[in-house]
Design goal:
With 402 residues, the chain is α/β, with parallel strands linked by helices. The protein has a single domain, classed as Aldolase class I (TIM Barrel, Alpha-Beta Barrel), CATH 3.20.20. Helix content is 42%, strand content 11%. The chain has 15 helices and 10 strands. Helix 5 packs parallel to helix 15, helix 12 packs across helix 13 and helix 14 packs across helix 15. The longest helix is centred in the last third of the chain and has 32 residues. The protein starts with 10 loop residues before the first helix and ends in a 33-residue tail after the last helix. The model has no long low-confidence stretch (mean pLDDT 92). Flavin mononucleotide binds next to loops.
Length: 402
């Protein structure tokens, strides 16, 4: 752990730091799930239900969490999920997130809904940047948009497919924090209660760029977050199908992944369509509230697709041990969105880096404690008495003298 821990020792500390700094409605928008928050809790419960066994007297002095994904070495099997909220937690937050990831040596995903344009983020941060696409109702516009993504130099494209309709998040409505954003007395009082945020975000935004805008959006659609552009809105994607993915596959020669599936059946279809990977995700419990945790469907997904495509998982990882557990169940990499957003809220690039450092330090420690030297050694043998959705571990008996 570096000396500059900023007073944050775990992801929950960063979450509390974000809560103290952000206007209530913005914090809830980031932190909350859909409806009753069952999905958010279930994502955590799936991880915490898994118990591991330590292994002793194994030389782990040369251990490393380094791995490779899509031909690039990464410091640990972790990447930052796309979120459109970087610029809401800190002015220029998307650049802060990307720079933190580049410094740590892990991928960071730029979202279609980012407040800053992709070109500016890529130029300022560099590193292993991936791009996430939400398709607009105007599909031609989305296909044209991909030329820009390609020209900016992105090699990995994630198409998010889990939002055929907008989610039901009642707290956003109560806070007045939904599109179109309206400056109601309630919202204004929440904002004024956080003068630090007014300075770090609101003032800098208005002085430097004017109203909050989704600057990746093409000129022809309204970008201001205070205006709802109904027909072209990203939430109107209920006309999406595998046919669209095929069209994207035809033009996108880089790595192509879909994000937001929660079933082995869809993962098999993705492999059949020739995609490079899938991201098992329930959007952090933000769409279907009673959704299974992606971790719970990971073993059956791995059994169904094997090594045909990369399986990445997000939703609910908060500890380095969670990364180890997901890898043990067959994931190639783990992602999350909230932890680094909490970090960025607390200190832009330094705070986001702190979140990554916490994941790294915790993963390194737990690998040592479990007697694991490499990512390849991580498997279901680490579990003690796992629940029924986890394959029975092969016990790793070997001679002590080995
Ligand atoms: C505030 C916020 C905004 C998000 N925006 C997007 C987005 O624009 N596109 C997308 O594919 N996923 C988006 N997500 C979902 C994340 O990519 C990811 O699936 C989710 O954060 C995983 O849950 P976790 O961070 O709790 O582990 C967003 C999540 C949050 C919290």
């Amino acid at each position: 752990m570096s000396a500059d821990h900023m007073g944050f020792y775990n992801i929950e500390d960063l979450r509390q730091g974000a809560k103290r700094r952000l206007p209530h409605g913005i914090f809830e928008f980031i932190d909350g799930g859909a409806e009753d928050g069952i999905g958010v809790q279930n994502n955590r419960d799936a991880y915490t239900s898994l118990k591991v066994k330590n292994r002793v007297l194994i030389d782990v002095s040369q251990r490393s969490a380094e791995t490779e994904i899509f031909g690039k070495k990464i410091k640990m099997p972790y990447g930052i999920s796309p979120t459109g909220a970087g610029g809401l937690v800190y002015y220029g937050g998307e650049i802060g997130l990307a720079k933190a990831a580049a410094r740590m040596g892990v991928p960071c995903t730029v979202a279609t809904n980012a407040l800053l344009p992709m070109e500016e983020i890529a130029e300022a941060a560099g590193g292993n940047l991936w791009f996430q696409l939400y398709m607009w109702a105007d599909k031609e516009m989305s296909m044209k948009f991909l030329d820009r993504v390609k020209a900016t130099g992105f090699e990995t494209l994630i198409v998010t497919v889990d939002g055929p309709v907008g989610p039901n998040r009642e707290y956003n409505k109560k806070n007045g924090f939904h599109a179109p954003l309206k400056y109601t007395p309630k919202l204004i009082s929440q904002v004024l209660a956080r003068p630090g945020w007014c300075y770090r975000v609101l003032l800098k935004q208005y002085l430097n760029r004017g109203a909050f805008r989704k600057e990746n959006y093409p000129e022809e659609i309204e970008r201001r977050v205070t205006v709802a552009s109904e027909e072209m809105s990203v939430v109107k994607t209920d006309r999406q199908s595998w046919e669209d993915i095929r069209k994207i596959r035809d033009v996108w020669k880089g790595n192509l992944l879909i994000k937001g599936l929660q079933s082995a059946e869809d993962a098999v279809l993705a492999a059949d369509e020739g995609l490079e990977g899938v991201i098992l995700s329930n959007h952090g419990g933000r769409y279907v509230d009673c959704a299974a945790a992606p971790l719970q469907v990971l073993p059956e997904t791995k059994a169904a697709v094997g090594d045909r495509i990369k399986i990445i998982i997000d939703s609910g990882a908060r500890r380095g041990s969670d990364l180890v557990k997901a890898i043990a169940l067959g994931a190639d990499m783990v992602m999350s969105g909230r932890p680094t957003l909490f970090g960025a809220a607390a200190g832009n690039e330094a705070g986001a880096y702190r979140a990554l450092e916490i994941f790294y330090d915790e993963m390194d420690r737990v690998m040592a404690q479990l007697g694991l030297n490499t990512i390849e050694e991580i498997g279901p043998q680490i579990f003690w008495n796992p629940p029924e959705w986890v394959p029975r571990p092969q016990l790793g008996f070997r001679a002590a003298a080995e």
